[in-house]
Structure formats: structure tokens, C-alpha cells
């Protein structure tokens, strides 16, 4: 598998698909964890990301950051997972692995980001997948790239 970035809004299923791909034997990095961002989750640590992409020829990275576009040239595929906003809100409301999205304010922020940011992600994507598909179907589609 070449270098692939999986991106999308909160609740799109990035971490779930990444976990499935890891279970299938792929090297993965979830930038929501382990210090990949500046602390606010806004920007990736650019030096660390450059180092990772210089070392790893086959890797699947997931996340959404303000500066991810700077790295698009290093990925063979940028995959956008998208779903209707109410699906995203329902998913973040019931997930236990990440507290973001539990409050009404955070849910409103997700609604705003879908309007403001998702179109930017779509323009940079080389593929868009319907995040309402099963995790297995999404992983199969990503593997087929």
C-alpha cells in the first residue's frame, strides 16, 4: 500500500478505518494521538510528519489538521470520508474513545466545520468515500487504491 492520508470531519470514522487497516497488517498513524499536533489539535508537528514520510514508503495516516495540505504531495492518495452532518453528530455523541463532540457547542462547531472546511478537504482529496459504509467496506476500498 502506498502512502495514504485518510481525512474527514469528526465522526467520519477515520480512527475506526485506521484500526481495521492496522489489524490487516498495515503500518498506521492516527494523528489525533501521541503528540502529532500542536496540543490544540490544530496543526501537525511538521518536522515529525516530514520525518515520518521520509522514512515510511507504505503507511496510512489519519487525521484532519489546518496544515495537512502542505503534505498532500507526499501522499499517493488523500481519501476523504464524508457523511451527512447529522450522522457525524450522532456518532460523536455516542463514542467513548474521544470526548470531542459531546457538548452542544462542539456539535455546533462540527456543523460549522462541515460547511467551511469539508469543501476544502474535498478539493484536496484524490478519492471520496461514503463514511456510512461499513468499516470493512471502507478498508477494502482504501486497500484497492
Structure report:
- The chain contains six helices and five strands.
- It has a five-stranded parallel sheet with strand order 2-3-1-4-5, with helices on both faces.
- It has a single domain, classed as Rossmann fold, CATH 3.40.50.
- Helix 1 crosses helix 6 and helix 3 runs antiparallel to helix 4.
- The model has no long low-confidence stretch (mean pLDDT 94).
- The chain is α/β, with parallel strands linked by helices and 145 residues long.
- The longest helix has 13 residues.
- Helix 2 links the parallel strand 2 and strand 3.
- It starts with a strand and ends with a helix.
Protein traits:
globular, alpha/beta, single chain, 6 helices, 145 residues, Rossmann fold, 5 strands
How far apart the termini lie comes to 8 Å
**Count of separate DSSP helical elements:** 6
CATH fold-level topology: Rossmann fold
Biggest sheet features? 5 strands, parallel
Along the chain, the helix and strand elements come as EHEHEEHHHEH
Helix content: 40-55%
Amino acid at each position: 500500500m502506498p502512502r495514504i492520508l485518510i481525512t474527514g470531519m469528526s465522526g467520519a470514522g477515520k480512527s475506526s478505518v485506521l484500526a481495521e487497516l492496522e489489524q490487516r497488517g498495515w503500518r498506521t498513524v492516527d494523528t489525533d494521538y501521541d503528540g502529532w499536533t500542536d496540543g490544540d489539535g490544530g496543526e501537525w508537528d511538521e518536522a515529525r510528519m516530514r520525518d515520518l514520510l521520509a522514512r515510511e514508503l507504505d503507511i496510512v495516516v489519519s487525521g484532519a489538521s489546518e496544515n495537512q495540505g502542505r503534505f498532500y504531495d507526499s501522499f499517493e492518495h488523500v481519501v476523504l470520508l464524508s457523511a451527512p452532518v447529522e450522522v457525524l453528530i450522532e456518532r460523536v455523541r455516542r463514542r467513548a474513545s474521544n470526548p470531542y463532540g459531546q457538548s452542544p457547542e462542539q456539535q455546533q462547531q462540527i456543523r460549522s466545520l462541515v460547511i467551511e472546511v469539508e469543501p476544502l478537504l474535498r478539493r484536496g482529496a484524490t478519492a471520496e468515500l461514503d463514511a456510512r459504509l461499513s468499516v470493512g467496506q471502507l478498508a477494502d476500498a482504501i486497500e484497492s487504491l
